[in-house]
Amino acid sequence: MTTSSSSSSSSDFICCENGYVLEDVPHLTDYISDLPTYPNPLQDNPAYSVVKQYFVNVDDTVCQKIVVHKDSPRGVHFRRAGPRQRVYFESDEVHACIVTCGGLCPGLNTVIREIVCGLYHMYDVRKVLGIDGGYRGFYSRNTIPLTPKVVNDIHKRGGTILGTSRGGHDTSKIVDSIQDRGINLVFIIGGDGTQKGASVIFEEIKRRGLKVSVAGIPKTIDNDIPVIDRSFGFDTAVEEAQRAINAGHVEAESQENGIGIVKLMGRYSGFIAMYATLASRDVDCCLIPESPFYLEGAGGLFEFMEKRLKENGHMVIVIAEGAGQDLLAKSMDQQDASGNKLLQDVGHWLSDKIKDHFTRQRKMVINLKYIDPTYMIRAVPSNASDNVYCTLLAHSAVHGAMAGYTGFTVGPVNGRHAYIPFYRVTEVPNKVVITDRMWARLLASTNQPSFLSPKDIIEEKKVEGPPTQLLDGENCMDDKLVSK
């Protein structure tokens, strides 16, 4: 399969004879020699007796980019997720733990439930602990014993039964706790900051030579994790955002010069705002962090609003929380416990600016309603699509950890679940490309101005660089939905 390889602290780059590069994840055997292996219990599991092929082939990979140019190389592949024929833990010796960190997101309880049930029903694992209260729970809080009975109906609730927190990452204390408790499978659910922490925990475990697998499940409601097709909770968030947009639309169209402003999540990436706008068809203007906008002058937001109000008598604006931060009077340098920059409330700021422009300067009567459903959306249970997706993520993580892989995160890459090195999902956030077809579809749907001059578009394309194997900027999410 391979011709050469080069190692880094977190992954291996293996040049394969077929012309592609396998960006592999660490394995326990990389730093612990002579580890025994055991038959995978799945081969005797009646639920899997109908499956033609129980196990994933050793050489199975998933390509990162599926649209290739005629003369382009085959590019980067990841190791395919799934059960292996041999495992590196006996069921009786496994002591697993699960921790959730960062903000709330629909689907957290589903992931917890399916890790527990996957360990119990597929691998006969009986010792699973929930770490209460995020990373600091490893050394400052009680643990929660988890069984299929305990987690049976938690997927119907929002939030996380384990509790969560930001910050509290003391690597030495966390690994001490893992070692003292005899834990050998660690499942960490969280966003980019959490995955960075998981990577550091893995490195310390590796330094100590412990037989402990560390698996991450990437979580962000904003869908800003790179490489993977989408993050869990995103579908639910878009669906739930429709309720807020519909309320804004009803309020706006019921009054003279009615304006509904709906603020949605999206610190650095406007995917929720973009997809909710496209799904709704009631939105007149969508403002996201990736697309700078301005208020006054030709082609500005106020000019567009005046035109739309004269045409329709009402309008709805969707704005992501990270949009327009450069326009606010004061910049904030503070950060939260996770290291995220604290943002000012752009929704209230925009509402005040609109009121000032139309009532004081233009002497127009307007009726403005501002809706912020952020925490209502974060707190709902996941929908059917996300529930299925969370199950696949959880089972992929369980299969990988039992097979001895460690220092990895899981996720679908072009529709196939894969094991991905931690750093690949934390290096650069996934963002909407405003010179991409999906954003063009939104502009065509709303008929809003792009707020970009021809010069801006040229500069944007220069930043993107030349075409690569994948049609750059296409997240492929829209194409996948169509193909399914």
UniProtKB/TrEMBL annotation:
<feature type="binding site">
    <location>
        <begin position="375"/>
        <end position="378"/>
    </location>
    <ligand>
        <name>substrate</name>
    </ligand>
</feature>
<dbReference type="Pfam" id="PF00365">
    <property type="entry name" value="PFK"/>
</dbReference>
<feature type="binding site">
    <location>
        <begin position="265"/>
        <end position="267"/>
    </location>
    <ligand>
        <name>substrate</name>
    </ligand>
</feature>
<feature type="binding site">
    <location>
        <position position="192"/>
    </location>
    <ligand>
        <name>Mg(2+)</name>
    </ligand>
</feature>
<feature type="binding site">
    <location>
        <begin position="166"/>
        <end position="167"/>
    </location>
    <ligand>
        <name>ATP</name>
    </ligand>
</feature>
<dbReference type="GO" id="GO:0005524">
    <property type="term" value="F:ATP binding"/>
</dbReference>
<keyword id="KW-0479">Metal-binding</keyword>
<keyword id="KW-0021">Allosteric enzyme</keyword>
<comment type="similarity">
    <text>Belongs to the phosphofructokinase type A (PFKA) family. PPi-dependent PFK group II subfamily. Atypical ATP-dependent clade 'X' sub-subfamily.</text>
</comment>
<feature type="active site" description="Proton acceptor">
    <location>
        <position position="222"/>
    </location>
</feature>
<dbReference type="InterPro" id="IPR050929">
    <property type="entry name" value="PFKA"/>
</dbReference>
<dbReference type="InterPro" id="IPR035966">
    <property type="entry name" value="PKF_sf"/>
</dbReference>
<dbReference type="GO" id="GO:0005737">
    <property type="term" value="C:cytoplasm"/>
</dbReference>
<keyword id="KW-0547">Nucleotide-binding</keyword>
<feature type="binding site">
    <location>
        <begin position="220"/>
        <end position="222"/>
    </location>
    <ligand>
        <name>substrate</name>
    </ligand>
</feature>
<keyword id="KW-0418">Kinase</keyword>
<comment type="function">
    <text>Catalyzes the phosphorylation of D-fructose 6-phosphate to fructose 1,6-bisphosphate by ATP, the first committing step of glycolysis.</text>
</comment>
<feature type="region of interest" description="Disordered">
    <location>
        <begin position="463"/>
        <end position="484"/>
    </location>
</feature>
<comment type="pathway">
    <text>Carbohydrate degradation; glycolysis; D-glyceraldehyde 3-phosphate and glycerone phosphate from D-glucose: step 3/4.</text>
</comment>
<protein>
    <recommendedName>
        <fullName>ATP-dependent 6-phosphofructokinase</fullName>
        <ecNumber>2.7.1.11</ecNumber>
    </recommendedName>
</protein>
<keyword id="KW-0067">ATP-binding</keyword>
<feature type="binding site">
    <location>
        <begin position="191"/>
        <end position="194"/>
    </location>
    <ligand>
        <name>ATP</name>
    </ligand>
</feature>
<keyword id="KW-0324">Glycolysis</keyword>
<dbReference type="InterPro" id="IPR000023">
    <property type="entry name" value="Phosphofructokinase_dom"/>
</dbReference>
<dbReference type="GO" id="GO:0046872">
    <property type="term" value="F:metal ion binding"/>
</dbReference>
<comment type="subunit">
    <text>Homotetramer.</text>
</comment>
<feature type="binding site">
    <location>
        <position position="321"/>
    </location>
    <ligand>
        <name>substrate</name>
    </ligand>
</feature>
<dbReference type="InterPro" id="IPR022953">
    <property type="entry name" value="ATP_PFK"/>
</dbReference>
<dbReference type="GO" id="GO:0006002">
    <property type="term" value="P:fructose 6-phosphate metabolic process"/>
</dbReference>
<dbReference type="InterPro" id="IPR012004">
    <property type="entry name" value="PyroP-dep_PFK_TP0108"/>
</dbReference>
<feature type="domain" description="Phosphofructokinase">
    <location>
        <begin position="97"/>
        <end position="399"/>
    </location>
</feature>
<keyword id="KW-0460">Magnesium</keyword>
<feature type="site" description="Important for substrate specificity; cannot use PPi as phosphoryl donor">
    <location>
        <position position="193"/>
    </location>
</feature>
<dbReference type="GO" id="GO:0003872">
    <property type="term" value="F:6-phosphofructokinase activity"/>
</dbReference>
<feature type="binding site">
    <location>
        <position position="103"/>
    </location>
    <ligand>
        <name>ATP</name>
    </ligand>
</feature>
<keyword id="KW-0963">Cytoplasm</keyword>
<keyword id="KW-0808">Transferase</keyword>
